[in-house]
Design brief:
Layout: H1 5-32, E1 42-44, E2 50-55, E3 60-65, E4 70-74, H2 104-123, H3 128-140, H4 144-157, H5 163-174, H6 179-192, H7 198-212, H8 215-228, H9 233-241
Antiparallel strand pairs: 1-2, 2-3, 3-4
């Protein structure tokens, strides 16, 4: 008996439904056989070992396998992030400021550390603590302009921190002899300070005592500190010395 056109259509539809049902069954079976002890970040290799990858906050990628071996790679933490512009030149060589005497030992230490920190910053531009450390070694090497650039960028990354403005104030006051800038950054450091940063008031007062030669202003700064940090022993002792 010949098969009608209608029957052919019905048979085709049934065949498609059967194939679809078989696919669903196989797919569910495969999903149910996936090991439950593998994390979403884990992958399997051809030798049935399991590897997992972790990226640390310092920019290291640690790849660990189930047999206990691991590798550590430096990775960039800059992707997908925006940073204040312009970004300082992280290939900047040490440039000793004019008329600055630097011991050979200090210069050797700083010259070794500076490129190391620059390399770290290239993978994590937002690490403001490394910018501060870079500035410290630049200052040690006599590169005062480099220190200014690094510390100002650190302050842009962490505008509420007190370390970078405190370092800038000291550099401007005692090394670059710029009282306007020193005053500006001392005030920022103190405004950003905490109950544990009495030393900032002492540094500011010392600047007025030794550089500006204004004992009354130095005493007023310490009084300001005592309002914010009452009965602080260091502040009281320094005030007593202002005779």
């Amino acid at each position: 008996m010949p098969i009608s056109k209608t029957n052919k259509i019905i048979m085709s539809v049934v065949a498609i439904l059967v194939l679809l049902a078989i696919y669903i069954v196989i797919d569910r079976r495969n999903k149910s056989e996936v090991p439950t002890d593998i994390s979403p970040t884990a992958t399997t290799t051809g030798t049935n070992s399991v590897t997992s990858t972790t990226t640390t906050s310092s920019g290291q990628k640690i790849v660990t396998t189930s047999n206990g071996t691991y590798t550590i790679k430096e990775v960039s933490l800059n992707e997908g992030k925006t940073f204040p512009q312009p970004i300082p030149d992280l290939n900047r060589p040490v440039k000793v400021s004019t008329s600055v005497a630097v011991s050979p030992e200090a210069f050797a230490v700083a010259s070794k550390k500076i490129p190391e920190i620059q390399a770290l910053l290239k993978t994590n531009l937002g690490d403001w603590k490394n910018w501060i450390e870079l500035g410290l070694y630049q200052k040690m090497a006599g590169d005062y302009l480099g220190a200014v650039i690094s510390w100002k960028y650190a302050l842009r990354l962490a505008p509420t921190d007190f370390v970078a403005p405190g370092d800038l104030a000291d550099l401007y006051a005692y090394y670059l002899k710029d009282n306007v800038q020193a005053e500006y950054y001392y005030k920022i450091a103190i405004a950003n300070g905490t109950s544990k940063t009495a030393y900032l008031y002492i540094q500011y007062a010392t600047y007025y005592r030794d550089i500006i030669k204004d004992i009354a202003k130095a005493r007023a700064i310490i009084d300001q500190g005592l309002i914010k940090i009452p009965n602080n022993p260091a502040l009281l002792e320094f005030k007593a010395s202002l005779q």
